[in-house]
Amino acid sequence: MIIKRIDRYQVRLPLRTPFETSYGRLTEKAFDILLVTDELGNKGIGELVPFEQPDYIEETIQTARIIIEKHLIPLLKDKEIYDPNEISSLFKEVKGNQMAKASLETAIWDLYAKRNNRSLKTYFATTRAQIPVGVSVGIQPNLSELLKQITNYVDQGYQRVKLKIRPGYDLEPIRAIRKKFPKLPLMVDANSAYTIEDIDRLKKLDIYDLAMIEQPFSADDFLDHAQLQKVIKTKICLDENIRSLKDCELAFALGSCQSINLKIPRVGGITEALKIVEFCEKHGLLVWLGGMFESGVGRALNLQFAAQNMFTFPGDISASDRYYFEDIVSEPFMIQEGEIKVPDGLGIGVKLSQEKLMKYGYYETIYSN
Ligand code: OSB
Ligand code: MG
After folding, report:
1. Does residue 321 have a known ligand-binding role?
2. How far apart are CA 107 and CA 5, in angstroms?
3. Helix 143-156 vs helix 171-180: angle between axes, to the nearest 10 degrees?
């Protein structure tokens, strides 16, 4: 297949409630939907997920748009693609910028599956029609609000809660949650807010039966994570650190973690993500699927991927209404008895809602040949 045209919707969706992490507060999510068209008129869709601020990782939506238009699309020009696994090698000469790469790579996977009349999940080792899901809870203004939020999610059926923490907002909220929900599968995510100086405080988290502690230290640190993992029994999970299979190999060799939060966009797309899943399976690392406040497009991709039998730990794949009043796909994702149904249409299995796209975004053609 040859990519003949690429269209883009730039969208902004207001969040139902602001989301606070150790590094900032988000009230609205900006994202782009890329629509790629082949020579036969088949179409694939992908989501560009980075934030407007370089505060989660360095990539932003603005830098990603430049990389896509100036550096990635020219590599696709007149290129005959036989297999979507070729895209990651084709993009290799552009360093880094994984989320920019993933937006096109995942759109091409969707296109390829549709062209072959297949659901995307049929390319993966999947047997499940619906999957258990978890929810990520932002930093709250007080403990009663926190417990109210968690009670609400538990009542909706979420099977695992991830609490955002930062130094000073850690032991007390965890203790309060554990008191009310002694058996709840619970984990925490620090988004790099601690340093090795905080090791004594982090050791105190060990008694709360947490499923894992996600990304306590900085995104470029492997050694301090390894030092912490040696003295706590709770699993350390790496998120921001892991941009490639190489990063997983390094983390495993050094003992920096026992779990990986895998986000397809953060590792440059499906091909690299599949290699990471294989590595984790081989070496006994607990791999699960993370999220980036995706719209229905990225959410559908995450569901297709997390339907793999390996993904037993509930991911950050909540229902559309966890973050948004309205989704830009025609059928928003709903949670039912703690699970979300994996779409079984062609490709990623969702249809865009033109009405919602026009309400929240605008459209332009960024490539045509
Ligand atoms: O650190 O996992 C994270 C959201 C945006 C950026 C980083 C993270 C998160 C979340 C929520 O924790 C994931 C989601 O529910 O989409
Ligand atoms: Mg994280």
Report:
1. no
2. 12
3. 50
Question: Which residue's C-alpha comes closest to atom 14 of ligand 1?
Answer: 291
Looking up tokens 């912490």 gives 228
3-state SS assignment for residue 2: coil
Closest ligand 1 atom, CA of 135? 15
Residue nearest to atom 7 of ligand 1 (CA): 292
Q: pLDDT per residue over 261-285, tens digit each?
A: 999 999 999 999 999 999 999 999 9
Question: First and final CA of the chain: distance in angstroms?
Answer: 14
**Site of tokens 């090795």:** 196
At residue 127, the pLDDT reads: 85
pLDDT at 346 over 90: yes
Residues taking part in catalysis: 164, 263
292 Cα–ligand 1 center, Å: 5
Q: Is the dihedral of CA 258, 259, 264, 265 positive or negative?
A: negative
- The label of the residue with tokens 């990520």 reads 136
pLDDT confidence of 23, banded at 50, 70, 90? confident
Is 189 among the annotated ligand-binding positions?
Answer: yes
Domains of the chain in sequence order: 3-117+351-368 (3.30.390.10), 121-341 (3.20.20.120)
> Strand, coil or helix: what is 221?
coil
Among all chains, which residue has been given the structure tokens 């360095």?
Answer: 58
